[in-house]
Amino acid sequence: MTFSGRKVFVVGGSRGIGAAIVRRFAAAGATVVFTYAASVGAADHLVAETGAQALQIDAGARDELIAAVRDAGPIDIFVYNAGLLVFGDPLTLNADDVDRMIDVNVRGAYFGSVEASRLMPGGGRILVIGSDTADSMPFPGLAAYVLTKAAMQGMARGLARDLGPRNITINVIQPGPTDTDMNPANGPRAAGMLGPMAIKRYGTADEVAGLALYLAGAQARGITGAMHTIDGGFAA
Ligand code: NDP
Q1: Could you tell which of 15, 79, 228 is best to mutate to test the pocket of ligand 1, judged by most ligand atoms within 8 Å of the CB?
Q2: DSSP label at 179?
Q3: Which GO terms describe its biological process (predicted)?
């Protein structure tokens, strides 16, 4: 699959699933721009490795994100991957931390996707990285996180209706436990994560990136407003 001549913009691309998506699209010939918030070293390394362009922009800063997307010009494939995970007893969770997660996971996804669609040509693609926990939440302490990922489902269904007439698709990729800094396969929560999985193995960021490329490819032109779960059966 080649993406030569296509411009890809990945929000939150310095590490984990986002970095795997940057690598895959760059290897497939796309011109890739990615944003990140804090991981300067990882971003620099990825730029050197892939030739992608990196922009240090907080996805939770609405106007800065909108300006960066607008200034990138027409984007063929927009990927919203940036995400925070705040968890714990909802009675004691810090409200500012929850608000910050909503800013990054929800507001950024909405305003970034809408802005990307403004100049997006027909055949364009929007992909947002949600979570299988939006469909099945077997653990306590994750209500606020799941709130943000469930919001992406509604957003995608709605924007599919707005953008369909322009031949632009929007889809949600819903990973399950995937080995990254956010959820390491050797971390303290890993054993519990494996419990609900039908295939008791953490996924890899590259597997999620492969699904992103499929949904951005020509054969997926009829898929929109849909959720695509890749979770080893966690939510089955
Ligand atoms: P990581 O924490 O490993 O990486 C997160 C990436 O997002 C980093 O590149 C980070 O950049 C970037 N990012 C975070 N906050 C911001 C921000 N405010 N502005 C711009 N970029 C930001 O996470 P994962 O790769 O594991 O997760 C990626 C997505 O997949 C998230 O949306 C997550 O919710 C979702 N997901 C992950 C699962 C898992 O098991 N790993 C399971 C289900 C869903 P920087 O370091 O520069 O801040």
Answers
A1: 15
A2: -
A3: fatty acid biosynthetic process
